[in-house]
Here is the input.
Amino acid sequence: MRLSMSLPRRARFARTSKLTDITTRYAGRHPYMSGLGMTVGALAVATLLNVALDVPHPSRIFLVGVMITAVTVGLWPALFACLISALFYDFFFLPPTYSLAISNAQGIVDFCFFVATAVIVTSLAARVRRYALEADQRALSAETLSDFGRRLADALTVHEVLDRAAERMSICLEMPVVLVIPETGRPSIRAGHPPHIAPDSDCLRSAIAWWALRPRGSDRDQFVVGDWRFRPLSGSETAQGLIARRPGNGSSVSRAGDDRLLDALAHQTALAVDRCTLRDDIETIRVRSETERLHSAVLSSISHDLRNPLASIVGSASGLEYQWRSLDDESRLLLIRTIRREAERLDTFVGKLLDITRIEAKVVVPLREPVLVSDVVEAALRQADGMVSSHRVAVVIAENLPPIEADMILLRQVLYNLIENASKYSSPGSGIRIVACWQGQEVRISVLDEGVGILEADVERIFNKFYRSAHAGAGVTGGGLGLAICRGFLDAMGGTIEAANRDDRVGAVFVIKLPAAIQVELSEAEQ
Amino acid sequence: MMIEPQAPPRILVVDDEQAIRQLLRLGLTPDGYVVSESDHGTGALDAVRRNEADLIVLDLGLPDMSGLQVIKRIRYAQSDVPIIVLSSSGDEASKVAALDLGADDYITKPFGIEELLARIRAVRRHRVPRKTESVLDAGDVALNLLRRSATVRGLDVKLSPREYELLRLFVTHAGKVLTHKFILHQVWGADTDVQYLRIYVRALRQKIELNADQPRLILTEAGIGYRLRSADQSADGSSR
Here is the structure.
């Protein structure tokens, strides 16, 4: 029995017992020689005792030798030792000595008792040994497996799982191991340890062909190409792959313990691969449902923000057309103003749809030119003039603020969207502050309002296209595009935008960061 | 064809969109303009050749030739008839191109008719030959051309020679958009870095605006240039 051979000596986590130690050292390699040696030793001791001390029954000495052989080396070498011992006993000690013949009945009985006792002792001792080894092995396997499982547990991708599994398998089996998951239509996922040893592509191809064509349920089969042995990696429905290993020259015979261990490791690997695949699937489903949410948001937004103004316009215009005579001047003006306001709302929304389309089509090519923050704030405020007329707007621009490197048109649109947002989410009469300051090479422009602020969970999400915060009341209209455009434009310009709640009071603050431009020296301008 | 001194100004509308032409005819006629229409660029060139228009409102997208082409050929024919360009939003590059080719101003679709009327007035005012008087008045800002001095809201303002030149350019073109290139060329006489202009405008604003961070006189036209607000322009009249 060569169970001991499969015990991983190099593995750090392998616990080795005393028994294993003794057996692995010499006896493991030459079991029958050690059985013979033990018997010769017993013969020597028996002869010594017989000659020197005249001990009458040397058979017990042989029994001790046989027993030691059985415990340390195993059943068959011990039985071999039995045979040799019986011959020695007969030859050297039973009369007539130095002959295999037995002269009297006493001798025949002695010999028979000796053989029977030796065989029984041998089988008992060998069984004890086997139990001990098995217990040892079980403990070791459990430890190996749990360690293996731990290592695979926190692997995030199939690749990582295979990498770690191949490394551990290679260490446990003391041979190069390569794991392959063939993918139809795509390159196979592979991992191996040590990294530079792998079967060549022809070998791999024929192994994959064998694997793909093997009959169902024949998972324990082996396939040998050159030095490499392949076996399926399967323990579950979905994870399907191959384990390739290359046993060393000395031990081309597969070891039973190796196979059992490999089975268990393969099973765990398959489960881990399964887990990763499932996680990927769940992520795919999540993305898909997010996409669906987005699509329905797009539809509802478009029907809301395009259809509603159109309905007002068509309705008002037809009212004017058919009721012209019965309407007084004030009513006519009301309808006309509705048409204009709704048309302007429509124009704004179409502008935003165009902006977001440009961002998604990646055709936004920003200029990188020096821009004075005061200029762009002014342009944005003027664009938003009608919108913020009922708010108190304050602009605070730090002294000597360097120009920023930006695209004026894009930045104006960003600021316009932020100002529009601030006015939409705060009540008339409240204040909107635009503050610009700089630190080193970075200029910050903040837009602060006195509205309800932002839910913590929304701080990032409000930049998503068509996302509308739960804070948005029924009265707030708008397609949820403004902030997505802001982020898209700032990304294009190499800046950032973030949302937060104000420290000093209730309200939201949006902070834009852009790099400062290199300033030109202007002595003349100082005058 | 002789023009009576008090003859109503004739405006040619060049746009292939029938609804826009009708809108302009209905919107401009009550203000005393005589409106003629053309739906292609060749018609505009013919009208200019026959001297039938005192001002052209020109759409940039025409079926037979681009609006930029029309401007180029009108100016090539030595005509200085004022041209106001109709452009779509977001297309700052073609606005600048049109202005650089010799268009006088632009207006972005969709626009309110009052906005267009203000543009027409501003463009025409500049075209009225200047009298020999020594004071230029543009609402809040007045310049004394002889003393080379400026008055803002009735108060004297001390300006450097460059700032005075800059302000004079704005005042003589009050209400009209001026491109960066045009201003640099007029005031500096050469192609100078736009950043100089920005810093001068900022300095000028600090002297003439109540709040330089929220200017009400010299307005920024993002991506294009500046505009001095004329007395009859509303605050948001020049946006978009």
In short: DSSP finds eight helices and twelve strands in chain B.
